[in-house]
Design goal:
Elements: H1 3-15, E1 28-35, E2 45-47, E3 50-54, E4 70-78, E5 84-91, E6 102-105, E7 117-119, E8 122-127, E9 131-137, E10 152-159, E11 170-171, E12 181-183, E13 187-191, E14 204-207, E15 211-215, E16 220-221, E17 224-238, E18 242-244, E19 263-275, E20 278-281, E21 290-294, E22 356-358, E23 361-364, E24 369-373, E25 379-387, E26 400-408, E27 415-416, E28 426-427, E29 430-439, H2 442-445, E30 458-462, E31 468-469, E32 472-478, E33 486-490, E34 508-509, E35 512-518, E36 530-533, E37 550-551, E38 554-559, E39 569-570, E40 581-584, E41 596-599, E42 602-603, E43 605-606, E44 609-610, E45 612-613, E46 619-620, H3 624-632, E47 639-643, E48 648-653, E49 662-663, E50 668-672
Parallel strand pairs: 4-10, 11-13, 12-14, 13-15, 14-17, 15-17, 16-18, 17-19, 18-20, 19-21, 19-22, 20-23, 21-24, 22-25, 23-25, 25-26, 26-29, 27-30, 28-31, 29-32, 30-33, 31-34, 32-35, 33-36, 34-37, 35-38, 36-39, 38-40, 43-44
Antiparallel strand pairs: 1-2, 1-5, 3-4, 5-8, 6-9, 7-8, 9-10, 41-50, 42-49, 45-48, 46-48, 47-48, 47-50
Bound molecules: 2-acetamido-2-deoxy-beta-D-glucopyranose.
2-acetamido-2-deoxy-beta-D-glucopyranose (NAG) binds near residues 432, 433 and 690.
């Protein structure tokens, strides 16, 4: 029994008394307008927001079992090329004021733009490019403490213009009672913002070849879009609407609710594009495992009526290897029993016909729901993932995951390597420019997984006969408290596995982690650590790259100013990790000291050169550089006070002229240039998420809407 199963059995007991309730509390008011350029004003208009509180009112809610509380409010904003958005956010949460900490929180990608004008319960700022932004009110200490599990946050999603809905697209009816509903082939459809798409139970739309499904801005659809019984070609799902898996799945209807289809979007084939959508799982009950979005055809075999695939077939611990059923693979070189696959119709052959996921936001409130997997030759870009299980799962050749922002909740790995092909090479996937804005998984790391490896930022327990090689991870930024960096184990008895028939597990060869950055030292706790181990006792038939080694892993890192080294890791079988190297990474977004003006022997605090104290007590940092980085990653921070004798760093807002600072030889004040007095000056246009392809259309303005598990936990 693993940790998840334990949690799950608790949930099952509690389900009976659960009554779902929609929470309509308006925690934030968001106003925005499009201005021609920075500094220009425009007439602010209220933008629709959506909100989900956690735990959803009621008892027996799964998140509670991992203490995950708080709420998320979000809004989709549209920004046209060459313009800027002026945004005003007001909080209605009684405990929140700018004095209690008010972060308009950029990632490294966006933090150079400038600052926010913050007063009491309001913040005003410009957003000059597309991407994701969070606005949070909290004391500084919350990043590392239990308060991290229980706070109210606002996510602003800044999107490029939507794909226009083609004239003649069929409006999907909200009263169609067929189960499932077929969409296509060769047709365009639209979910209208005027309809209420809620059937009171799980609803599946099955897409076919050459099918486009548009969501009008604000459309909210309680359904899933799935196609796992065949491989399809050319599907587009696009628009700034919401697809919400809200209801329990029926057990095991092939192609509808069997294990292969446990996804809110699960479509297998080639040329599958998902753009702009917000994909949520607001089912308040305990989780059925699954994915927000899994368009990796290699996840499951092709569905066969009468014999649904069960993920537990891949969790069979018969040693050295179970006898796998002869299930037909979608696109893997071999079928599940390792016989040759001979049908590669509609399988991607390059990035050109691979899947594309762009400007997608995936948020779940159900445990056991993973984030995004786009499969072989797939690209995931400019997207946001907030889940209570693994966020991104790169495990197929030639994938590209770039500019993904991750909010990791109390369970799971932000970048999980615990899943796999059955027995085919897995090469050359790139994971680059990943921004982890929260990583609460330290909360359950002590109990999961079973080994000394916790749920770090990168890792998993790998148990496949596929040799994984040439993976490149570049510029992974962890901008929050985290338990550990890398926890990676290869094991012939991994809880999910597909070893070779001899029971061999593939090695992970030549993985490069080129730039893994942590803003803070690791949160210390018990039951987890940085961890590396290959298979300690491979069967004698397992030789070469089937020995299950972690071979030639290079780790270039920077943890609050220092590099990781061997002494940071638990390595119970160091011989299984040959060729491990450590170097220091240089942050490509490092803030030059020249961006701050030094006032030596001065202090700044409320009424002495500062309007507000963001940290009253101050936080211990490694040095001046880390202190100004802290200021730079909070748009409400205008200056920092640094106490060199004990490395204490305190953020201040509304920092005035030098004449108003207090003389004090114990402190130095560093004022962010271009932000004197606070306010959104000095913002540079650009630097945000890349504009997606040529489909970018004209400005639309600012618009928005408003466990079974038991046997087969799949991570
Ligand atoms: C991420 O986005 C930034 C800003 O658009 C861009 O400069 C950068 O190249 C992107 N990263 C990757 C890996 O494409």
């Amino acid at each position: 029994m693993n940790y998840l199963m334990k949690i799950s059995s608790v949930c099952i007991l509690l389900l009976a008394s659960f009554v779902p309730t929609t929470v309509a509390t308006n925690k934030y008011t968001v106003k925005a307008c499009t201005a021609a350029s920075l500094g220009d004003t425009c007439t602010l208009q209220v933008v629709g927001t959506k909100n989900v509180a956690q735990p959803v009112t009621g008892t027996g809610h799964c998140d509670e079992t991992v203490d995950q509380k708080g709420s998320v409010t979000w809004a989709d904003l549209t920004l046209s090329e060459g313009k800027v958005l002026l945004v005003e956010v007001e909080t209605h949460v009684s405990s929140q004021t700018s004095n209690a900490g008010f972060f308009v929180r950029p990632t490294r990608l966006t933090r150079d733009w400038g600052t926010a004008n913050v007063a009491n319960k309001k913040a005003t700022f410009y957003l000059a490019a597309t991407g994701q932004f969070s606005v949070e009110f909290a004391s500084q200490e919350f990043w590392g403490g239990d308060a991290a599990l229980s706070f109210d946050a606002l996510m602003l999603f800044v999107n490029p213009g939507a794909d226009p809905v083609p004239l003649g697209a069929t409006v999907i009816s909200d009263s169609d009672s067929s189960a499932p509903v077929d969409l296509g082939p060769n047709k365009a459809y639209v979910f209208s913002a005027d309809n209420s798409y809620d059937w009171g139970a799980d609803k599946v739309f099955k897409v076919h070849d050459n099918t486009q499904v548009y969501f009008e801005a604000g459309a909210h659809v309680r359904a899933r879009i799935v196609q796992t019984e065949k491989k399809v070609d050319n599907v587009l799902i696009s628009g700034y609407g919401t697809l919400d898996a809200h209801y329990d799945l029926e057990p095991d209807v092939v192609g509808v609710s069997d294990d292969a289809t446990h996804q809110t979007i699960g479509i297998y084939g080639k040329n599958i594009h998902v753009v702009g959508l917000t994909i949520v799982n607001t089912n308040p009950k305990c989780g059925v495992w699954g994915y927000c979005l899994n368009i990796n055809a290699n996840w499951s075999p092709i569905g066969v009526q009468g014999d649904p695939f069960g993920a537990d077939e891949l969790q069979d611990q018969t040693m050295p290897a179970p006898t796998y059923k002869a299930r037909q693979a979608h696109c893997q070189e071999k079928n599940m029993d390792d016989s040759a696959n001979t049908n590669f119709d509609n399988c991607p052959t390059s990035h050109t016909d691979g899947q594309l996921v762009s400007y997608v936001k995936c948020m779940t409130w159900q445990m056991g729901q993973d984030g995004i997997n786009a499969g072989k030759y797939g690209t995931v870009e400019n997207s946001f993932v907030r889940v209570i299980d693994d966020a991104i799962k790169p495990w197929d050749s030639h994938g590209v995951y770039k500019n993904v922002t991750i909010w990791q909740q109390a369970l799971g790995w932000p970048i999980n390597f615990g899943w796999w092909n059955w027995n085919q090479p897995d090469v050359g996937t790139v994971v680059e420019d990943i921004y982890v804005i929260h990583n609460h998984n330290w909360h359950t790391s002590g109990g999961w997984p079973e080994t000394a490896s916790g749920q770090c930022t990168i890792g998993g327990i790998y148990g496949s006969g596929s040799v994984k090689s040439g993976y490149k991870l570049k510029n992974i930024f962890v901008e929050t408290a985290a338990s550990c960096a890398i926890g990676l184990e290869i094991s012939k008895s991994a809880y999910s596995r597909h070893p070779t028939s001899d029971g061999c597990v593939g090695s992970i060869v030549d993985m490069q982690i080129d730039g893994l950055f942590f803003d803070e030292e690791f949160k210390t706790g018990t039951g987890y650590n940085n961890f590396l181990s290959g298979e300690a006792s491979p069967y004698t038939a397992c030789v070469g790259d089937l020995k299950g080694e972690i071979k030639n892993l290079n780790i270039a890192s920077n943890v609050a100013g220092r590099a990781l080294g061997a002494s940071d890791f638990t390595m119970p079988n160091a011989g299984t990790v040959p060729g491990l190297t450590f170097t220091t990474a240089v942050d490509p977004h490092a803030v030059p000291l020249s961006k701050y003006e030094l006032h030596s022997n001065k202090n700044a605090y409320a009424d002495f050169g500062a309007k507000g104290e963001i940290d009253t007590a101050g936080v211990t940092v490694a040095g001046v550089q880390q202190c100004i980085e802290r200021c730079h990653s909070d748009w409400s921070c205008d200056c920092v006070v640094f106490q060199a004798s004990n490395n204490k760093c305190s953020k201040r807002r509304g920092c005035g002229g030098v004449e108003s600072f207090d003389d004090d030889v114990n402190y130095d004040v560093y004022v962010r240039k271009g932000s004197e007095g606070g306010g959104p000056q000095g913002i540079m246009v650009g630097g945000g998420g890349a504009v997606r392809s040529s489909r970018l259309s004209v400005l639309v303005g600012v618009a928005v809407g408003g466990v079974v598990l038991a046997m087969g936990i799949v991570m």
